[in-house]
């Protein structure tokens, strides 16, 4: 990785941290818009781990995290060769990133998932009749959702900047960042082998939830809901179960797209796609959305588990919803691993170092042979 690029990325990360530090200080001083608290969501328990934390304490946590970002950026910019302090500071940033994921919740994931469902149903059927476009976006994209999105953007910036820095510090290829010799798991053959396992897990995890929502839409009790509860909830919100089936459909589509991470049609456009058929798919077209979803899933799943535990303490616990949503924690990590494996297999050959260029991905070579035969 070119040192100038690594430096530019660190400066961008520092600017993001500085901006967040200013906002956190303002919240600590009592400015409106603090993004945590029970008043943002009527759920029976804290949606985010920070909802139960007083605003002054939560703001202090944000200030410390943003300050750590500024300190890390300043140190790395002035010490381009790495070293012990750089490793410690990098570990601190990664710990903050893990905290962002764990302390997350389902609201951003729900907003992203519900937006296309709402747009399609509203434009085609007019449902729900009492929900305008403006009201929907105002309800779905409140400040906590936008704040969570901003945190994930910052996390992505920091991860990219740290990778660029350590690639340069360790003497990797200045063009692509690869070391002189790849470890087995980072080679195309190795990534394909362990990526198959990760992809299989990521595909299976959402299927129980999807099946339960389809059964509910068909009028069959599932997911811990009795028939009486189904009738009552549908009377209070007509079309509720059909809307749930729409969300489940996106989960099913996500599972199918995840399967494409290890299939030939996930590397070349299928024959039924006009204009693009037969062309190679840009790997970033799969890596970026899959990476975003993998960051959102663990926090959303942990939030649902926390709410179920609160209900259990109140004597209202039903284990079936927990069994359906708990696999989402594993789903997020499995999807992240599958996405990494896909990138390691599909990333372009480097014209400078040529590392791994002599070890082609078997699926790509077979696809190329088939194309040549035609």
- Beta-strand residue fraction: under 5%
Which series of helices and strands comes N to C? HHHHHHHHHHHHHH
Structural shape:
globular
Q: Major sheet, described briefly? A: none
Oligomer: single chain
Number of structural domains: 2
- Distance from N terminus to C terminus (CA atoms, Å) equals 39 Å
Q: What is the SS-derived class?
A: mainly alpha
Number of helices: 14
- Determine the mean pLDDT: 87
Our Rg estimate from Cα atoms comes to 23 Å
Number of strands: 0
Short description:
By secondary structure, this protein is mainly α. It contains 14 helices and no strands. The protein has helices at 3-28, 55-78, 84-102, 107-125, 133-140, 143-169, 188-204, 207-217, 227-236, 240-259, 284-313, 319-325, 327-346, 362-373.
Topology (elements, then pairings):
Layout: H1 3-28, H2 55-78, H3 84-102, H4 107-125, H5 133-140, H6 143-169, H7 188-204, H8 207-217, H9 227-236, H10 240-259, H11 284-313, H12 319-325, H13 327-346, H14 362-373
Helix pairs in contact: 1-2, 1-6, 2-3, 3-6, 4-5, 7-10, 7-13, 8-10, 11-12, 11-13
Transmembrane segments: 52-76, 88-109, 145-162, 194-220, 240-262, 283-307, 319-344
Keywords: Membrane, Transmembrane, Transmembrane helix
């Amino acid at each position: 990785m070119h040192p100038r690029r690594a430096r530019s990325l660190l400066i961008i990360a520092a600017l993001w941290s500085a901006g967040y530090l200013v906002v956190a200080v303002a919240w600590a001083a009592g400015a409106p818009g603090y993004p945590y608290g029970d008043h943002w969501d009527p759920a029976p328990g804290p949606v985010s781990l920070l909802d139960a934390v007083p605003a002054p304490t939560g703001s202090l946590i944000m200030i410390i995290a943003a300050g750590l970002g500024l300190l890390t950026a300043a140190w790395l910019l002035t010490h381009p060769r790495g070293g012990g302090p750089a490793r410690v500071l990098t570990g601190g940033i990664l710990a903050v990133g893990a905290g962002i994921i764990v302390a997350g919740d389902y609201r951003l994931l729900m907003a992203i998932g519900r937006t296309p469902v709402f747009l399609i149903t509203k434009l085609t059927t007019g449902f729900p009749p009492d929900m305008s476009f403006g009201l929907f976006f105002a309800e779905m994209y409140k400040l906590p959702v936008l704040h969570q999105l901003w945190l994930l953007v910052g996390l992505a910036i920091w991860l990219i900047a740290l990778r660029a820095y350590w690639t340069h510090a360790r003497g990797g290829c200045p063009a692509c960042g690869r070391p002189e010799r790849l470890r087995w798991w980072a080679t195309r053959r190795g990534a394909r082998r362990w990526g198959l396992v990760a992809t299989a897990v990521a595909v299976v995890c959402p299927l129980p939830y999807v099946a339960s929502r389809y059964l509910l839409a068909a009028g069959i009790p599932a997911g811990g809901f009795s028939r009486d509860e189904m009738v009552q909830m549908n009377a209070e919100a007509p079309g509720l179960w059909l809307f749930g089936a729409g969300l489940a459909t996106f989960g099913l589509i996500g599972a199918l797209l995840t399967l494409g991470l290890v299939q030939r049609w996930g590397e070349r456009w299928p024959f039924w796609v006009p204009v693009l058929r037969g062309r190679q798919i840009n790997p970033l077209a799969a890596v970026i959305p899959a990476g975003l979803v993998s960051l959102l899933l663990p926090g959303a799943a942990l939030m649902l588990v926390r709410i179920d535990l609160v209900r259990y303490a109140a004597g209202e616990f039903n284990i079936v919803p927990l069994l359906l949503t708990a696999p989402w924690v594993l789903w997020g990590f499995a999807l992240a691993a599958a996405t990494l494996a896909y990138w390691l297999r599909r990333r372009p050959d480097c014209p400078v170092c040529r590392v791994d260029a002599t070890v082609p991905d078997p699926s790509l070579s077979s696809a190329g042979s088939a194309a040549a035969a035609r």
